[in-house]
Amino acid sequence: MKFRRILTLLSAMAVTGLWGWPAQAQNRGDEVLLEMQQAFRKNDAKRLSALLPQARGHVLEPLAAYWEMRTRLDTAPASEIRSFLNTYAGSYYEDRLRNDWLQQLGKRRDWATFTAEYPRFRMRDDREVRCYALATEVMNSKADVAEEALRLWYAQREADDGCTYVAEHLHSGRQIQALDLWRKARIAMDTNRPRAAQAAVDIEAPRLSEQVALIHADPAKYLDKRILAITRSRKELAVLALIRLANKDPDEAADLLARRWSIQLSQEERNWTWAVIGKQAAQKLQDNAASYFAKVQKDSDLNDDLLAWKVRAALRQGQWHQVLSATQTMSAEARKDPTWVYWRARALLSTTHNEAQRQEAQSLLRQIASVRGFYEQLALEDLGQTITVPERPVALTPQEKAAALIHPGLQRAFYAVAIGLRAEGNREWNYSTNLHTPGGMNDRELLAAADLACQRQVWDRCINTSERTKEVIDFDQRFPMPLRETVVRRAGEIRLDPAYVYGLIRQESRFVMDARSHVGASGLMQVMPATAKWTAKKIGLTNFTPDQITDREVNVAIGTGYLKLVLDDFEGSMPMATAAYNAGPSRPRQWRNGPVLDAAIWAENIPFQETRDYVKKVLSNTTNYAAILTRQPQSLKARLGKVGPRTSPIAEVNTDLP
Questions:
Q1: CB under 8 Å to 258, separation ≥6 — which residues?
Q2: Phi/psi at 59 (nearest 5 deg)?
Q3: Residue 494: exposed, middle, or buried by beta-carbon count in 10 A (0-12, 13-18, 19+)?
Q4: Quick one: average pLDDT of 424-442?
Q5: What is the DSSP letter of 440?
Q6: What is the CA radius of gyration of the chain?
Q7: What is the distance between the alpha carbons of residues 310 and 325, in angstroms, rounded to a whole number?
Q8: Active-site position among 168, 508, 604, 610
Q9: Hey, which residues does 516 pair with through a beta bridge?
Q10: Is the pLDDT of residue 227 over 80?
């Protein structure tokens, strides 16, 4: 009976047009949606209101109505907003507009309406809205929300109203202390966010907050004009100046701290400042970074970010006892991260002299060992296992596939992608799979949704959705191989591992053929125009024009050609070549100077977070693709090797390489 109902729904979809979404992607309604998108980007409320009637009845009517209402949200009466929420109840755009409305209600301090609406908010993924909600909890029930409020506030990069408001409210009620506020200011100054730093200082020391801008502009000048810091606030301002100076010159900051300021600061202030200096030195790959961290007398005075950089600096110097102490001090949440689980296990094995510690290390490795990611794969190998293709999950049933097929949110997402509204489609897809219900879809539902995306060749949604399963892994979904004949043939012609090519494409574009980055890189392999032109000449691609870069065959030819040139320039080192593909070849040439390191340690010390994550993901992808392509056990460690200064006399550095 249930399956019969599903078949009935499928018939209804055929009638309404949802099933035929690609074929209908050129009708007048689609043109209206695209016009409305442009009007929304211009915040043209009048044009949106004029176009909305033409979008009525369209598959993406909820999106069109959202755009029109969003531009009027500041002035729309509550009754009209609630009418929208009722009309599109259960959809992503109901929840999206409620999120926007809750932000406005918080800014207006309309706590009665906020309190009434917040329980209906399903996504719960907006930090600012959550901070407003915490403020109402304190007002309504005197709840203890300080820990969560600080965590959210510290994670906010900019000076948003919601988390700053709840911090101010909690401070006035003595639920958070002065140190909590100064730590926010320190974090903001360290990440070059002076407005956020000033907002934090303004809560604790409003008469001094204007000095934050002076400190940010010229920290050395600020410190030079001040000899003594007697009050707590003056000491903390000196800490902010030292933090800002460390960002520019960690050695100068260290000298000033040691000569003048150390004796004036509290132990906690000294520990934090030395750690920031150590972090900045570590990001510059200075050999003295670990020595700066060694001046920290109490690791518990540091946050997880500073402890992470202490671990990286210690790894670079082979100081396993420091790795052990820093990972032990991290928060419970950070200690679950496979990165720090793995390095703690390695530290235990490198320092242990008893069976209990060895067993603890083995237990930690077993906790994360799998084919899911970089450190999980390393843990597998440390346990003596190889990386192989996992057994496929039980096949999806017709009912499971049909349930995904008739899901209205997924269908709207597909339609949006088909007519060129990829960002909007991705957001609705992510909401449908991750946020509509608490915890998101279960594993079987995720597999069915991913399968549907794979069948429609919407590869990024296929991969991202399949990656969210917790108990099962479907490699066919997670590691698809579009254009297999083209990629394998081209890689073979230039003696490049096709698994490496696939591992890189998966990370670069998720196989989105028309992908374009914010810096102008295009296509499957995300090639920059200037790089494409240079590479085309090098590989003998005649009559190349820039518009050809989005052609699949041309993009693969140029991308693989460039990757091979980079790999050869770095003497076959996949970690360095991968870093060069992401950050340009000049940076990894600098990053390789110093001690000879296991490539896993070298990769973990890459200064740029984007490139650090990129290298790890590409090499993890490559290892899994190799297992699929060869059907043989694979080793990530064999692909990593070691990284150090260039020693090969065979060929000089290719200085022309862009």
A1: none
A2: -55, -35
A3: middle
A4: 96
A5: -
A6: 27
A7: 10
A8: 508
A9: 522
A10: no
Q: 19-25 contacts: CB < 8 A, separation 24 or more?
A: 21/59, 21/411, 21/414, 21/415, 21/418, 22/418, 24/415, 25/415, 25/418, 25/419
User: Residues 565-602, buried b or exposed e (16+ Cβ, 10 A)?
Assistant: bbbbbbeebbbbbbbbbbbbbebbbebbebeebbbbbb
Q: What's the rounded Cα separation, in Å, for the pair 377 and 373?
A: 6
Tell me which residue of 229, 278, 224 sits closest to 256, measured CA to CA: 224
**Residue 104 predicted with pLDDT over 60:** yes
Confidence of residue 653 (pLDDT cuts 50, 70, 90): confident
Spatial distance between the Cα atoms of 626 and 481, rounded to a whole number of angstroms: 12
What pLDDT does 403 receive? Answer: 98
Angle at 390 between CA 385 and CA 392, to 5 degrees: 165
Confidence check: pLDDT of 22 > 50 = no
Task: Report pLDDT for 27.
Answer: 83
Give the model's pLDDT for residue 523: 87
Residue of 149, 143, 151, 72 whose CA lies nearest to 104: 72
Q: Is 508 assigned a catalytic role?
A: yes
pTM (2 decimals)? 0.94
**Residues near 263 by beta carbon (within 8 Å), at least 6 away in sequence:** none
**Distance between CA 56 and CA 65 in Å, rounded?**
9
Hey, is 126 helix, strand or coil?
coil
User: Dihedrals φ, ψ of 598, to 5°?
Assistant: -55, 135
How far out from the chain centre does Cα 204 lie?
32
Can you tell me the distance from the alpha carbon of 442 to that of 44, in angstroms, rounded to the nearest whole number? 40
Dist CA 610 CA 587 (whole Å) = 13
504 burial level (CB within 10 Å; 0-12, 13-18, 19+): buried
Residues 307 and 324: their CA atoms lie apart, in Å, by: 11
The pLDDT score that the predictor gives to residue 365 is 98
Res. 360: pLDDT tops 50: yes
- What pLDDT, in 10s, does the model give residues 36-45? 999 999 999 9
Q: Count the neighbouring beta carbons within 10 Å of the beta carbon of residue 647.
A: 7
> pLDDT digits over 435-487, tens only?
999 999 999 999 999 999 999 999 999 999 999 999 999 999 999 999 999 99
How far is it, in rounded angstroms, from Cα 204 to Cα 212? Answer: 13
Whether 343 and 327 have beta carbons less than 8 Å apart is answered as: yes
